[in-house]
Design goal:
binds 2-phosphoglycolic acid, TIM Barrel, 11 helices, globular, 8 strands
Length: 263
Amino acid sequence: MRRKLVAGNWKMNLTMAQAIAVAEGFLRFVKARESVDVLICPSFLCINKVREVLKSSHAEVGAQDVFWLDNGAFTGSVSPTMLKDVGARMCIVGHSETRGRFGKLDVPPSTVGYFAETDETVNLKIKALLYHSIPPILCVGETLTEREANATDTIIRAQLDGALQDLDASELPSLVVAYEPVWAIGTGQVCETPEAERICGMIRQHLTQKFGEEVGDHGRVLYGGSVKASNAQELFSQPNIDGGLVGGASLNAEEFSRIVMSA
Ligand code: PGA
């Protein structure tokens, strides 16, 4: 039986004082839901402080990204050892925003070029995280153009293959994959539940084919993209959806608590 996981991705939001306030607001609710794994991914700067706020609960903190080397002349980057040091227990990789695949239409081209992570860099990050025993949350998902071209399943399988290249089943006991259709992220347009369930099932099947039943059955597959308290219960009650990766709605303690409660 897979435990549900609800992860909040705060993205580039909340100052230290705001982060503490949201985490404190969330604390009393989360204690009532020990049957669900809960993770909050603040900005790098707030990881340690948010971890302190949440330490009397089972909720953990994670990071939104990582660089794949331990140290060196990589200005602006954060390594897996640094994440471990501040208490990050998981790390998001390959988010469509770090891949430069934004759901919004008004993103300046220069921004896309700046991020533009590839399957290859996602793969390097996953290997580095696993080496340091930090479970990755691997994000995959198609853009609207890809969906309209009927390429959704092919794109997702290719993202899984690229991200998990040269890894073997024994390295992936704690793998988490998040299906995040790019067009659903931050747009308020959630993927219909039957389709989200179909894709999460397809991801599980692909993992089983590649790595065997142990990984396919135990790996958790989350849905992300405009998850709210009003749609979480329906999504999370599907057999192949093991919880959610929540962006905007995780910035509000009460809304995020209600999402966790519905898992
Ligand atoms: P959203 O973001 O919930 O704001 O759509 C989800 C995500 O980017 O992980």
